[in-house]
Write a structure and sequence with these properties.
The structure holds 2 protein chains of 2 kinds.
Chain A (H helix, E strand, L loop, with lengths): L8 E5 L6 H11 L4 E5 L3 H4 L11 H4 L2 E5 L4 H8 L5 E5 L12 H8 L7 E6 L15 E4 L7 H4 L5 H14 L8 E5 L1
Parallel strand pairs in A: 1-5, 1-6, 2-3, 2-4, 4-5
Antiparallel strand pairs in A: 6-7
Chain B lengths: L14 E5 H16 L20 H9 L6 H26 L10 H15 L8 H72 L1
Helix pairs in contact in B: 3-5, 4-5
The chains are: A alpha/beta, B mainly alpha.
Chain lengths: ~190, ~200
């Protein structure tokens, strides 16, 4: 069986209180992948689920939802490359990625289809998404947020369309804070 | 020659826009549809050194580089342990009455200290098991303690001896002083007697 499937790489972006985490939780609950792994520093948000150390085989074969605290980011990414058939969520990406994309994170993007991994970034602002990820993201879920810097937007396939969607979200969210719109690659 | 159309049709957007609820529904459906094409059986789970449960024999083998100590080695090790235990017990009983601070430690502490230092003191590429090194280090530690205690006891004995000497000297001095006093009194008595004789003659 081919494992080269059309997996998703989704960015859910919005300032505090817009509903991005709730949106992500809805995805997680509805997804039928065997594993869902949340990388997070917001331990209280996920503490009802088992913690995952990415140390043993059982940390890669578990079923259901677990969470991992990337205290040592390079080590966590090195281990994350081995994950398969999993929904990987980077909760509040700005906490563990600076502007330089670590090589292992890049490999995780590239190999996501072969390893059947879906990836979700949750971020407060568009600039919190790692720069190189823009070329791989299949779908943005836009809540009210700050605009992206030009160098990030330049990596988008249709910057004008994206700008129009962003403007719509900003306008409609003035009345409805939880308004969001999906900008999805065709 | 082909020329570009002067009025090209507007390019379609590369994006599709959906509202929140529709986006969630479609996204989940698509992700589930893709994920259903694969199963965990299509992948080989990674394995790690940390997967194996702790096995003392395996740990020992990994640590010492030998399969299992031979019977003679085990007997030798037991003999070494017994010797050190006996030595330690003797040292303790010999010095216990002296109540030195030096001996306010437990054999377990020596073991722990030895266990801690043994791997660092062990020469590289040796096949001598760590527990033997541990015993050797423990031995050195104990001998060191015994040596120190011995030195303390020697000092103590020396101090006792000196104290006795001082006491003896004091006693002698007192005795001498007493003698001198007696002599002085005898001398005074003699003088007085002489004086009495002189007065009687007069």
């Amino acid at each position: 069986m081919s494992t080269d499937i059309q997996t998703k790489m989704v960015a859910i972006v919005g300032t505090n209180g817009t509903g991005k985490t709730t949106f992500c939780r809805n995805i997680i609950e509805s997804m039928k992948v065997p594993r869902k792994l949340v990388l997070t520093y917001h331990m209280s948000d996920w503490s009802q689920y088992p913690i995952n150390e990415l140390e043993n085989t059982k940390d890669f074969t578990f079923k259901g939802l677990q969470w991992h605290v990337p205290i040592d980011v390079p080590k966590s990414l090195d281990r994350l490359k081995l994950m398969y058939n999993t929904l990987i969520v980077f909760d509040d990406a700005r906490n563990f990625f600076d502007d330089r994309t670590p090589p292992d994170l890049h490999r995780i993007y590239i190999s996501r289809r072969q390893r059947a991994n879906h990836i979700i970034f949750i971020a407060h602002d568009l600039d919190d998404i790692p720069r190189k990820a823009y070329a791989f993201i299949s779908e943005f879920i836009l809540f009210r947020c700050s605009p992206a810097s030009p160098d990030r937007l330049s990596k988008l396939m249709d910057r004008d369309a994206f700008d129009r969607a962003y403007a719509r979200v900003m306008k409609k969210s003035e009345n409805d804070r939880h308004y969001c719109e999906s900008v999805k690659m065709i | 020659m082909n020329f570009p159309s002067p009025d090209p049709a507007p390019e379609k957007s590369a994006y599709k826009f959906l509202s929140g609820d529709d986006a969630l529904k479609e996204l989940v459906n698509e992700m589930n549809a893709e994920s259903s094409k694969v199963s965990d059986d299509d992948f080989e789970p990674p394995t790690f050194e940390t997967d194996t449960e702790s096995n003392p024999n395996e740990d020992a083998k990994k640590f010492t580089g030998i399969e299992k100590p031979s019977e003679s080695a085990q007997r030798a090790a037991e003999a070494v342990v017994k010797t050190f235990s006996d030595l330690f017990a003797r040292a303790l009983s010999a010095y216990a009455k002296e109540d030195y601070e030096t001996f306010k430690f437990e054999p377990k502490e020596v073991g722990e200290v030895a266990g801690y230092f043994a791997p660092y003191l062990k020469p590289e590429n040796t096949k001598i098991p760590d527990y033997v090194w541990g015993l050797i280090v423990a031995g050195f530690l104990m001998f060191d303690r015994v040596k120190l205690a011995g030195a303390m006891r020697k000092n103590n004995l020396e101090a006792e001896r000196k104290e006795k000497q001082i006491k003896e000297l004091n006693r002698k001095i007192e005795e001498q002083q007493g003698r001198i006093k007696v002599l002085e009194l005898q001398e005074k008595e003699a003088k007085l007697k002489e004086k009495v004789k002189t007065l009687e003659k007069e």
